[in-house]
Fold this protein.
Amino acid sequence: MFKQSLVAATILTTLSTSSALSAADGAPNPELWGRWGRNAFNFEPKSSGPQPLTNLSRRPDGTGDPGQLVGDHRNPILKPDAAAVVKSKGELAIAGKGYPDPSNQCRPYAPPFTFAMQLAFQMLPKKDGITILYNQDDQVRFVRMNGTHPAKVVPSHMGDSIGRFEGDTLVIDTVGIKSGPYTMVDRWGTPHSEALHVVERYRLIEGVAAKEAQDKFEKADGRVGGEGGATAIDPDMGRKGLQLEVTIEDPSVFTTPWSAYVTYRPLTNTWMEQVCAENPVEHYADEWIGLPKADKPDF
Amino acid sequence: MFASKSTLLAGCVLVTLAVPASAPAQSARPDFSFTGWLNEATFEGGELIPVEGSPPLFKQDPAHPFVGNNRGAQPTYRIADLASNPNVKQWAKDVMKKDNDEVIAGKIAYTARSSCHPAGVPGFDLFGFQPTFFFQTPKKITIIYSGDQQVRHIYLDVPHSKTVKPSWYGESVGKYEGDTLVVDTIGLNTKTVVDNYRTPHTEKLHVVERWKLVEGGKTLEVTFTVDDPDTYEKPWTAKQRFRKADGEMTEQVCAEGNFLLFDYGVPKNDGQPDF
């Protein structure tokens, strides 16, 4: 689908990059374009301020139970309607049913869900923008550099993302994220409206600090993939880490804008294939969510 | 879907160690990344373009003429005239005969695109209707087909791993030879077909693609040689051509398509996730 409304912004971007300035050239440090990973899901809380939801279901060692996703619906960032949705999803999880999400339905993982779910990603810069490739299901999103949002954004799965460098920080602003039966802000099923506004701020941090942040969060939330980890983090702490600070705003769902960290470190392994269509895609087909069905094709 | 595949790590470490210290001169590298590329053949039903000197390619069975989409008549599927290609071994023709009979009887013919599946190699080169994008870096090329966002990873100037676990897109290593990107792929699983006649292959499949710009950079051409001694008498070669496609990569979500309306053989379970 070609988006006519984007043409003006694209032309502006092209003009402003005609002096051989590309997204890659704008980067203060080429390490940014490496492959990044973590061995935990979910958002890392900041030391103060509004906090992301956590899992009420804990394992005996105190970490979140990845097999039972019960979001803390009492978190004051949630408005009552959103809290009720999170509570109902948690009840499904407790009943052993689980609930559909973008991952188990082979749907796009939009921001900010993608930050809570994806364990590895890489940014691929080109002259007009940055294509971000996420490992699970080979998810792809595109960020126009130095552009503006169109006056009227047609909501899409990944939304309309524009980026710029502020000093050494890559800032990505996303609006126009489609809302649907499988879309959610986090893995606890927190809903969002199409007013969702997500700002990502990526900056390189010292390797030691990145390791500390990852270790601390894994102790609280649980490590994915056991001791070996689901992704192969380079143990060299001399290599810088990457800190994403994400700020999430949606007045119909949240009582306040809130922000969280997601900490990454460089990966050593090559990309692995993950093919969603090879896996069971009809989880919860007869549950309340209702997948589309038809007796006859539309054509 | 999330899965941990730690078994791949050992092979990957070997590859990393083998990266040479110096890369080829930057100036020699062709650049395919400045635009998207749209396969021309898909608009004609996705036939391979023959290459002189190669063993023959399958042709459509004249008893079941091919009708493409949007031609004002009921579209039909590719049905190979099995006698038209003596280079393909009998076991493969037996598989195709059974499949063709079922398709003629009303079964929906398999395509990777309509099943939300990866197409393998050279199947990837036949993807059409949406453009393919190249991302070239000194050590790696990522190719993304924007329809359902299929992704291939090509590691440059490294040898193949000693053991390769078969996967949909296999293990691709590449190098630049002048104006040409040469990609060598092995380790392809047998879930894919090599053309739109649904010609099968074994895990011995070995594909060498040669990508280059032709017609003054207006067209991207890939010439690929397909070797599988268990399926084909001799290696065979064919081409695909791509024209420039302006615009950004757009969202194409396969799971939103029509695959739930038919039985495309998508695996199902009883509702319990694997994790």
